[in-house]
Amino acid sequence: MVRAGVLALRGAFAAHAEKFVALGADVVEVRRPEHLTDLDGLVLPGGESTTMSNLLVSSGLAHPLAEAIASGLAVFGTCAGMILLSTNILDGRDDQISFSAIDATVRRNAYGRQVDSFECDLSVTSLDSPFHAIFIRAPAIEELGSGVEVLASWNDAPVLIRSGRIMAASFHPELTADTRIHRLFLDLVESQLAVR
Ligand code: GLN
């Protein structure tokens, strides 16, 4: 059984946990460094990336999590979680954490300035019908490194990306009943387990 962690410091973590339970994974709510032990994959949920950054430091998770990512943990960042994974953060706070796990430049609240929240149907690579996506004060992906694959775009901008064992979404795939994007992440985790 895959052990899927969900960073549970704050934000939309419970809905991610429900998705993994529905898909038959063993779920670990990650609040302290010892919770990182033996994880196969981890979700960094949405919320507020600057607050999550503060909580990562005060919980003592920032360093062990950076080490786990560097040593091969599969991670899926959604919204604020995507911001934490990206190499370059625009309109961020100077001291906010970036794990630099995916070669992407993201701009915080870029969709939020026009409308705080919106929904749309996305065509996603390998899914045979559209995925209904919910964006909440979402970050925009403005640039990508050459090794990053775009799995879905909206208005010509990438909104779901993957590089190796790292996935990131501008939107909140945990807020609809559809489990297919969590399934894609578990497939990625399982493919990593197979080569470990
Ligand atoms: N705007 C938030 C941030 O900058 C992200 C929003 C979200 O996760 N829904 O952290």
Your description of this structure?
β11 and β12 form a beta hairpin. The model has no long low-confidence stretch (mean pLDDT 95). A 7-stranded mixed sheet has the order 2-1-3-4-12-11-10. The chain contains 5 helices and 12 strands. The longest helix has 16 residues, at 180-195. It is α/β, with parallel strands linked by helices and 196 residues long. The structure holds glutamine (GLN). Glutamine (GLN) is lined by residues 46-49, 79-80, 83, 108-109, 136-137.
- Detail the poorly predicted runs: none
Structural class: alpha/beta
The proportion of residues in beta strands is 25-35%
The secondary-structure element order is EHEEHHEHEEEEEEEEH
Total strands: 12
Query: What oligomeric arrangement do these chains adopt?
Result: single chain
Strand order of the largest sheet: 2-1-3-4-12-11-10
What is the radius of gyration? Answer: 15 Å
Q: What's the shape?
A: globular
| Helix content class | 25-40%
CA-to-CA gap between the ends? 15 Å
Could you tell me the mean pLDDT? 95
Unique ligands:
glutamine
Largest beta sheet, briefly? Answer: 7 strands, mixed
The total of helices stands at: 5
Key descriptive features of the protein:
single chain; seven-stranded mixed sheet; 196 residues; alpha/beta; 5 helices; binds glutamine; 26% helix; three-stranded mixed sheet
Concise account of the structure shown:
The chain has about 200 residues and is of the alpha/beta class. Helix content is about 25%, strand content about 35%.
Chart the SSEs and their pairings.
Layout: E1 3-7, H1 13-22, E2 26-30, E3 41-44, H2 49-58, H3 62-70, E4 74-78, H4 80-85, E5 86-90, E6 102-107, E7 117-122, E8 131-136, E9 140-144, E10 149-154, E11 157-163, E12 166-169, H5 180-195
Parallel strand pairs: 1-2, 1-3, 3-4, 4-12, 5-6
Antiparallel strand pairs: 6-9, 7-8, 10-11, 11-12
Glutamine (GLN) binds next to helix 4.
